[in-house]
Structure formats: C-alpha cells, structure tokens
C-alpha cells in the first residue's frame, strides 16, 4: 500500500466491527498513519454517540426480562417406543379380525363357494328363459287365462269409463 493511499471509510467501519477484516498491510497502515487513525477514532466516537442517543430515545422497560434456567434433558422413555409398537400391533390385529370373515375361503370350502355360484347362475338363467317365453308377471298371466271375449266391452268400460265408441 502506498503512503499517500488511505483506508476507505467502508473499510474503517468494517474494521471497527471486526478487526480481522483488514489485511495485514492495511492494519499496519492504520497503526502508522495518523490521518487514518484520526478518522477511525472519529467514526468510533460517532458510533458510540449514536448508541448513546438510541439508548436515550428508547422508553424504559416496564418489566424485567428473565431467561428461564436451563433444565437438564431427561432421556427418552423406553415405553414410548413400546407404545408405538403396541399400537401398530393392535391395529394389525383389528384389520386381521375384520378381514377374516370377508376372506373366508379355505381349501375345504372352495367347492362349496363354486357350487353356490353355479346354483345362483342357474336360477338366473331359468328366470331369464321364463321371461323370454312370457314377459308378463305371473299375476297378469293368470288373468289372461280367465279372460272371456264376450264381456270385453264391459271389461273395457270398467277399466276406462266414459270412453266413446268411434266404430
């Protein structure tokens, strides 16, 4: 560093905050140069005055702040892990108990399940065949057998009274 070069104001402020921020050359220059030392002392006084002025402007505290005493941490309780494992085991047992009736197919009753499915399919096919032959319900089919053609006009009058004969 040349003799006519001085430390900048930013570098002096940083030096007031952290002495290690200046390079060794600039630290030796600050120790030897009366201009830089005077400027550093003036900045330090300004910062100190600013701090005093800030303290004067702040209203006084109404209560004092007390930090809690540090408490020694207790080791984790081993029952916490046991509780977690126990809860997981209980949940698994509940799921298992609820799932057994749904999944009640064992090798011994697989044939029974297949037989029941075949029987229900056969009943469905019989019902479909019956409906193909006569789609009317059984009560209507019985009525159709008892119907006489002679009284059809009276019958129609009972079903739809007041109809006019357009024939």
Q: Explain this structure to me?
A:
The chain is mainly α. The protein folds into 2 domains: 9-57, no CATH class; 79-159, no CATH class. It is built from 7 helices and no strands.
Structural class: mainly alpha
Low-confidence stretches: none
The major sheet is characterized as:
none
Fraction of residues in H or I helices = 55-70%
Count of helices?
Answer: 7
Number of strands: 0
What would you report as the Rg, rounded to the nearest angstrom? 52 Å
Count of individual domains:
2
Secondary-structure element string: HHHHHHH
Oligomerization: single chain
**Cα separation of the termini:** 131 Å
> How much of the polypeptide forms β-strand, as a percent range?
under 5%
Indicate the topology.
Elements: H1 9-17, H2 24-32, H3 34-57, H4 78-102, H5 110-133, H6 138-146, H7 152-159
Helix pairs in contact: 1-3, 2-3
Give me a quick take on this structure.
The chain has helices at 9-17, 24-32, 34-57, 78-102, 110-133, 138-146, 152-159. The chain is an all-alpha fold.
